[in-house]
Amino acid sequence: MVDLTGARWRKSTRSAGNGGECVEVADNLPGVVAVRDSKDPHGPALTFTPTAWTSFIAATRELH
After folding, report:
1. pTM of the model as a whole
2. In sequence order, which residues have a C-beta less than 8 Å from that of residue 31 and are 6 or more positions away?
3. pLDDT confidence of 26, banded at 50, 70, 90?
């Protein structure tokens, strides 16, 4: 399990601006990018290696 205590969370630039359905990303930790649901900040977070995160973002951009 990754320690996310020092994570600085920010809302994703792709999150809807309707006040409730936001994804937050923390990319300030060495060797890990974390993603969580802003409605459940104490709930689980997905973690990625920076390389896997970059691949994920590239693949989602291809969908638009």
Report:
1. 0.81
2. 49, 50
3. very high
